[in-house]
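Side project, low priority. Logging it here so it doesn't get lost.
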Amino acid sequence: MGVEGCTKCIKYLLFLFNFIFWLAGGIILGVALWLRHDSQTTNILYLQLGDKQAPNTFYVGIYILIAVGAVMMFVGFLGCYGAIQESQCLLGTFFTCLVILFACEVAAGIWGFVNKDQIAKDVKQFYDQAFQQALEAGSDTSNGKAVVKTFHETLDCCGPDNVIRAVTPLWREDLCPKKDSFLKHLLENSSCHKKIDELFSGKLYLIGIAAIVVAVIMIFEMILSMVLCCGIRNSSVY
């Protein structure tokens, strides 16, 4: 016997929320794949300075997002099917998956908040090491110059966040993007430290918005799934 009245409305409301949840999972998966293959992050984070690899903390977060997006799409489909079929077993499984996914999202959010400054800090330290090697007389024996030029060309910047940035273009034009004049360089080119901060803070901002929206949807879905489960159990008595 199918559910009736308000419980039937909850059934279709849960189906709608799960469809939105499934779409959100697809969007998160798409955004994560875009971040993974974005030219700016890829060019920088695939660099190698001698035996030292660029910090991969950012990519760890991206791989977590890819997994979360894929799981969300599966759970969203499970919720849609369970709601339409009015299956207590499927809805119970769906609720359990939501609780686990919600806990994982909270844990990932805490991890991201704790490491948000460390990601940019590690990349800036990696850049500073490469920049120092590129300025040394014997830097031709290393790939420091190539690493620095990749940073400069990708982020349109020149030098670290100090006075060296201002004078570097005067004597090392091979390291910095060419400008029509030194004054134009000072006005248009920010320091690479500032550009690195902007790069990662902007992308983490997008991830944070998506996580908050998904968390709100998940809370509504957990409430609706339990209400629908109770409604199905009560309707089967009559």
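Brief comment: The domain at 6-236 is CATH 1.10.1450.10 (Cd81 Antigen, Extracellular Domain; Chain: A).
Revisit when time allows.
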